[in-house]
Amino acid sequence: MPYRGVIFDLYGTLIDGWDVTQARQRTTQLAEALQAPLKPFQELMERTYTERATAALGDLPQMLRELCRRVGHEPQAAALERAAVLRWEQFREVLSRPREETPSLLATLRDRGLQVGVISDSSSETPEIWPTLSWTAPIQVALFSWTERRRKPAPELYHKALAGLGLHASEALYIGDGGSQELSGAESCGLTALRIDHHPTDPEAHLRFDPDEAWRGRELGTLTEILALVS
Length: 231
Prior knowledge:
Elements: E1 5-8, H1 20-34, H2 38-47, H3 49-53, H4 60-70, H5 77-95, H6 102-111, E2 115-120, H7 125-129, E3 141-144, H8 145-148, H9 155-165, E4 172-176, H10 182-188, E5 192-196, E6 219-220, H11 226-230
Parallel strand pairs: 1-2, 1-4, 2-3, 4-5, 5-6
Helix pairs in contact: 1-2, 1-5, 4-5
């Protein structure tokens, strides 16, 4: 059966996101804005990814307040507001810069009549900023873990994306960098999964949570290779 649609991961796939060093720098900036103790705050940010990405800590101000509480810090109202604005701007910057090939690829898929979706593990900033991004126009269905209250590889995410796109699992490709065990999760739901690796020789240039270490399927070097698979 020919493929009629493609579902993408977001961070590390359609956009680069932050590398390990950049992520730590952003966390440092956030701790400084909150005037919170740096090392405990950094360690807590690394431990609470699932909570932040599934709305267990609430929206952005609630999340920052709870993180401070857990490290024994009570931020001033002005500091909390500055930190929330800073965090929103950090995400706005990275989300506004898709990979060079991404906009044209998405437009080509749309023009060829293919269905295009996204499933992303993300905290509240991403779904808030998403509607303001011009490059995302060809994407018909976008699901975010914060909004859906669950992370990949939850089968419900794949099934909901397929239903929204009007596709059977056998008609869809799933493309991701392999974080969140997303590739094995996609395959368990009947999709064909491919891993994209934009930085094969530089592990520090890639930040992934819960990587799909055991997955050994087909890999792509560039997003544009997808076009040959759906032609």
